[in-house]
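Readers of this paper often ask what the protein records in our data store actually look like. Nothing more is needed to write down the fold, since each code stands for a local backbone conformation. Below, we set out a record of this kind in full and without editing:
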Amino acid sequence: MKSTITIQGKTYPCYSTMGAMLKYKHLSGNEASSIGTDVAEMVTYLYCMTTCACDAEGVDAPPFDCQGFANRLSPEEFNRWATGNDSPDPGNTDADSEPGEKKSPKQ
């Protein structure tokens, strides 16, 4: 699934590619499939996914290394990505409902 991430107000494509897995292996020495709940590993893989997705789409990647990426990644944006809340639910038209909660039909 293709998604995006926003770093300092700029939105970048961010999704898994074979290149992201390879880059993660080169940076960390570990397989991407072994990433658990370790925040440092997750941020590193998020960096790899973002830079490789940018390359795949022919757009400029964030102009910083992994540490610079982590320094600029807000906790809110990281949590949005980590929980899979990539975008508001387009089927949710009730302003008082929670994200992902469908508005019940009127009777």
Notes: Confidence is low (pLDDT under 50) at residues 87-107. The chain is about 40% helix and 10% strand. The longest strand covers residues 3-7.
